[in-house]
Amino acid sequence: MTGLGLGAAGAVPPLRPLPGLLALQDPVGRATDLARPIRFTGGIDAARSPQALAAIGVLRQIGMLLAGQRTPLIVASADLTAQAVNAAMVRQPKGAGCPWD
Questions:
Q1: Which of 19, 37, 54, 89 stands the most exposed, by the fewest C-beta atoms within 10 Å?
Q2: Residue 70: which domain range?
Q3: Beta strands in 48-101 (DSSP E)
């Protein structure tokens, strides 16, 4: 049975972690150890582009990894809407055990 068929039957389809998101722990940990800031650029497209939408998920994961640490995060974006969405993703990484949750 496919994942869509399982979802229609009421069962939860199997989810697997994305290796690229798991690999983010290494550079974030290295930047934290060296007390260096992390610079993130999600692209120069508008907030509705597929590249920017994928970057929002990556930025959210970085925000969850940085929760509770003193590592500065610099986010660059050419689009004001994308900048507002990026700021909201970093401010509220749900489930990360942040003091503002």
A1: 19
A2: 25-91
A3: 73-76
